[in-house]
Amino acid sequence: MIKFCGKGVYGAVAIGKISMFQRKDVSVKRLKITDTETEKRRLEAAKTEAVEQLQSIYEKALKEVGETNAQIFEIHMMMLDDADYNEAVIGIIDSQQVNAEYAVAVTADNFAEMFAAMDDSYMQARAADVRDISNRLIDCLSRPGTEAERSCNEKVIICADDLAPSETVSLDKDSVLAFVTAHGSSNSHTAILARNMNIPAVIGAGDEFLSQIKDGDIAIVDGFTGEIIVNPDEETLKKAEKKQIADLEKKALLQKLKGKENITLDGTKINIYANIGSVDNIGAVLMNDAGGIGLFRSEFLYLESNDYPTEDQQFAAYKRVAQSMGGKKVIIRTLDIGADKQVDYFGLGKEENPALGFRAIRICLTRPEIFKTQLRALYRASAFGNLAIMFPMITSVAELKEILSVCDEVKRELEANNIEYSKDTELGIMIETPAAAIISDKLAPMVDFFSVGTNDLTQYTLACDRQNPNIERFCDTHHEAVLRLIEMSAENAHKNGAWIGICGELAADTTLTETFLRMGIDELSVSPSYVLKVRDVVRNIDLSKSV
Ligand code: PEP
Ligand code: MG
Question: Which has the least CB within 10 A, 21, 152, 442, 482?
Fold first, then answer.
């Protein structure tokens, strides 16, 4: 039995087998071969495996995200069977006497270029699909024997050096018991995703941890204490099982608060909404009785994809969220890519200080075609529910003016084309830079609401990189400067008829719930699994008592 310690980022206990995270090697080598027939047989076997995978993904998607969104996997199955595509791959194997992986990669490039050059936007979007199916084929070709692994659906504890947000979001939630990383910070998006996905997680367990474990080891992951115990003895295992049961019972008890109001003892009401990163999280939002969605991090649609999601793909996702929430408010934040959320196909390049660099609204205002595509999808979806749009990383009035004028342009275009959208769509901004908080008196009259992003507001106010685990002790989220900026923003919002919420991780810090209520915060948006816990705390606060 060996003990390690990191930082717990989602409080729950997991017990199970360790599985080392396999990072996909995306580089494909060109190998000269003599036996082309064997290569073609390998290709056929890989195709069969890829179709089987797609069939099961299709069935899962059908249940979780509905037919419209699941259809893409049917299209992928058809594409794998496309005669032109297959002839091209076989042609390269035969003519160049090369391995199947290489032939597939070259075909993918050729077809993707051909699609991308077409005038029709539907056909252009197929470029991403052809790359996607080809990557799946290459994966099946390069990892023989994985079929057996994949069919074994035992849940495991994923262990890695670190996980990028795009890797975390791609984890198959149904097969992950917990995850542990050797590095990483508790304010990173990887940690936030763990909370959104209700996955017990410990980060920063150290290099020693990685060097001491192997596939198949049994481990206890305690997301409360940050402790990981590898190959525990009987007694330790029993204790962990007890703790796990007690935690589940406590969470079950909170379920009794479902359907109850978020109201303090003196009668002050507040909205408690949920944060999500994917359409898949809606189930958790509804199960935990959130009053709405206070932050949909739309960039994860981009992170999950191999190419820019099209207007129609985005529209389908936003519409589904809006419809599933049945009239409850859904606040979708526009693309907040950059810093730790890197997407290769954006070609952003390396930066000295990415958190202070080309990210979020700065990208959208510099590349309006990306911004307008997203806004069109959002406005179209607004006809199907109670949608609000929120903009990240605002620092100036000029930026906000520019954003509002792009919104007006998009609305005019939709009207000209007789496309329906809701004229009541609320617009809001994130208060996540000190600049935005300080000029909140100027910004508030221009919008319907503010939502405080305490993760970035803390980082920028205290000059503490949220990705850097070495300075976490200086990154005091309760710092008076941060709280004063929130209070100042709340006052300015209310003076100008706007409402204000908090959607950063601090919204779930129940030691501050009363402070936020006293500031007049109207909404707290937290990971779905924290909704009932915050409700419980709100219901026991008495604001009539002076502090
Ligand atoms: C924040 O900064 O608090 C926030 C909610 O946005 P993100 O964590 O996605 O940067
Ligand atoms: Mg932020």
Answer: 152
Q: 303, 430, 477: which to mutate for ligand 1, most atoms within 8 A of CB?
A: 430
Active site amino acids: 189, 503
Give the number of the ligand closest to the Cα of residue 298: 1
Residue among 273, 296, 297, 524 to mutate when testing ligand 1 (max atoms within 8 A of CB):
297
Residues 6+ apart with CB under 8 A from 330: 292, 293, 296, 321, 322, 385, 386, 387, 388
Using the atom order of ligand 1, give the atom closest to the CA of residue 392. 6
Residue 430 C-alpha to ligand 2 middle, in angstroms?
8
Coil, strand or helix at 30: coil
Q: What is the pLDDT of residue 271?
A: 98
pLDDT digits (tens, 9 = 90+) for 366-379: 999 999 999 999 99
Mean pLDDT for 380-396 is 98
**Confidence (pLDDT) at 149:** 45
Is 312 within 8 Å of 381 (Cβ atoms)? no
Name the token pair of 379: 């406005």
Q: Whose CA is nearest to atom 8 of ligand 1?
A: 455
What single-letter DSSP state applies at residue 281?
G
Statement: residue 407 has pLDDT above 60:
yes
Nearest atom within ligand 1 for CA of residue 503: 5
Q: List CB contacts of 533: < 8 A, sequence separation 6 or more.
A: 254, 508, 510
> Has residue 281 got a pLDDT over 90?
no
Q: What mean pLDDT value characterizes the chain?
A: 91
pLDDT-based confidence at 486, cuts 50/70/90? very high
Band (pLDDT 50/70/90 cuts) for residue 145 is very low
Residue 121 has pLDDT above 70, yes or no: no
Ligand having the closest approach to the CA of 508: 1
Distance CA 141, CA 134 (A): 10
Q: Please count the CA atoms within 13 angstroms of the CA of 38 that sit on its side-chain side.
A: 6
**Ligand 1 pocket check: which of 295, 298, 300, 455 to mutate, most ligand atoms within 8 Å of Cβ?**
455
Atom of ligand 1 nearest to the CA of 339: 10
Average pLDDT over residues 116-140: 80
Torsion sign over Cα 102, 105, 110, 113:
negative
The answer to whether residue 490 scores a pLDDT higher than 60 is yes
Residues with CB under 6 A from ligand 1: 192, 295, 297, 336, 432, 453-456, 503-504
Nearest ligand to the CA of 196 is: 1
Query: For residue 72, what pLDDT is reported?
Result: 77
Q: What stretch of H or E contains 13?
A: strand 13-20
**Cα–Cα distance, 361 to 445 (Å, whole number):** 20
Query: 163, 179 in Cβ contact below 8 A?
Result: yes
Cα(412) to ligand 1 centroid in Å equals 31
- What's the confidence (pLDDT) of residue 496? 98
Query: Could you tell me the CA-to-CA distances from 437 to 69, 71, 97, 426, 484 in Å, in that order?
Result: 39, 44, 63, 20, 9
Interval between CA 522 and ligand 1 midpoint (Å): 18
CA of 15 to the centre of ligand 1 (A): 30
